[in-house]
Design brief:
By secondary structure, this protein is of the alpha/beta class. The protein is built from 12 helices and 13 strands. α1 crosses α2, α2 packs parallel to α3 and α8 packs across α9.
């Protein structure tokens, strides 16, 4: 664990975690996809002191019921939010089951440049067969095959982020040179289903490597910076966290809080009349804010942070901002991200060295030996 500070992330896709959350939203359904809506929610999360916002995504519409659904691409929304925020981390969900890793790596590197080093990446999978048809790609069938695509895709993206050394860009007006070609590298990746040579078309991200989040049972732990773990109770979460094997661990927590107008149980019951809140095996809190604060304090013994999934963003985010984060701050359990810091720095993660630059540095001992031989 990174220390006493608990890092809080919040999922802000759609109107909330419940499929019928739109029925209790503070806006009409046609306003969901507007830029003002996205920036307003992101600003509320940043002002509250959250470490990170995540933006769910997938090639298929979210949900299959009669409720109105729709979303704009997570990377596009993240880029828009990056320009209107200054401290909060921004991590879009980008599945690799069918997407081209070369393009994904370039999009995410660009996002890190736009956000001045505040970008992350949540790696997920496209599980529904309809996704293959939407992409116009052969079906990737089965958990093992999907896991292979995620593993290879993350490995390719990380290698491409290193394919430009940090000082590859010269921008010399006097010599009319934009870059040092000797500091661009081919990655020469060959996987089970494709090969990528590189180099990338975007300079190395400000963080060197974006913060990569994902489930350690889907992506190898050595390719992740942050594991997202689940469990229906504290013991299950603690067990999953202990097995994660990643530098940082965030627990998934679904929340429905008491509001001035209704209790959490009443709000859930109101939405359950329209659609069920599916049990996805995650820890779930339904109740007052002070009990959530106590739960998060208990979780701080096992994980480095949590990703909260509010029942209805317009109702739960204000309560989180007004009652939960201030209470955690008073107990010195959370720390607000500082201006000018990268997401890696906020999470206590070192900026990784470039694999190619490290390979070209001649060790001091070797230089000394060579000089001795010349004598």
């Amino acid at each position: 664990m990174s220390g006493s500070a608990l890092h809080l992330a919040v999922e802000i896709d759609g109107d909330g975690a419940h499929p019928a959350a739109w029925r209790r939203a503070a806006h009409s359904p046609d306003r969901l996809l507007t830029p003002r809506r996205v920036s307003r929610v992101a600003a509320a999360a940043e002002n509250a002191g959250f470490t990170l916002i995540t933006l769910d995504d997938g090639v298929l519409p979210p949900g299959t019921g009669p409720d109105p659904v729709g979303r704009i691409g997570a990377v596009e929304r993240a880029a828009f939010v990056a320009a209107s925020t200054s401290t909060i981390g921004i991590a879009p969900v980008v599945p690799l089951t069918y997407a081209e890793p070369f393009h994904v790596s370039g999009q995410l590197a660009s996002l890190d440049h736009i956000s001045a080093g505040r970008a992350g990446w949540v790696v997920t999978e496209e599980e529904r067969p309809e996704a293959a048809r939407a992409w116009g790609r052969p079906l990737v069938d089965g958990a093992e095959a999907r896991g292979r695509e995620s593993r290879d895709g993350v490995e390719v993206a990380r290698a491409l982020w290193d394919s430009w050394e940090d000082d590859a860009v010269v921008r010399s007006v006097a010599t009319s040179r934009y870059l040092d070609r000797d500091r661009l590298h081919y990655i020469d990746f060959t996987g089970e289903t494709y090969a990528v040579k590189g180099p990338a078309i975007v300079p190395r991200p400000p963080q060197g490597q974006l913060v990569v989040l994902g489930r350690p049972d889907r992506v190898p732990a050595d390719l992740l910076d942050v594991a997202l773990v689940e469990g229906r109770d504290l013991q299950a979460v603690a067990s999953a966290a202990a097995k994660a094997g990643t530098p940082r661990v965030l627990a998934e927590v679904e929340v429905a809080l008491d509001t001035p107008d209704a209790t959490a149980a009443e709000r859930v019951a109101d939405l359950e009349r329209h659609a069920p809140w599916a049990d996805r095996g995650r820890l779930r809190h339904i109740g007052p804010a002070e009990q959530l604060v106590s739960l998060l304090q208990e979780l701080s013994s096992y994980v480095d942070g949590v990703r909260l999934r509010p029942l209805v963003l317009d109702e739960d985010l204000p309560v989180l901002s007004r009652l939960v984060l201030p209470a955690l701050s008073e107990r010195r359990l959370v720390a607000r991200p500082l201006p000018g810091t990268s997401l890696r720095s906020t999470l206590g993660l070192e900026r990784p060295a470039n694999r190619f630059a490290a390979a070209t540095v001649t060790p001091v001992a070797s230089v000394a030996s060579a000089q001795e031989e010349l004598r």
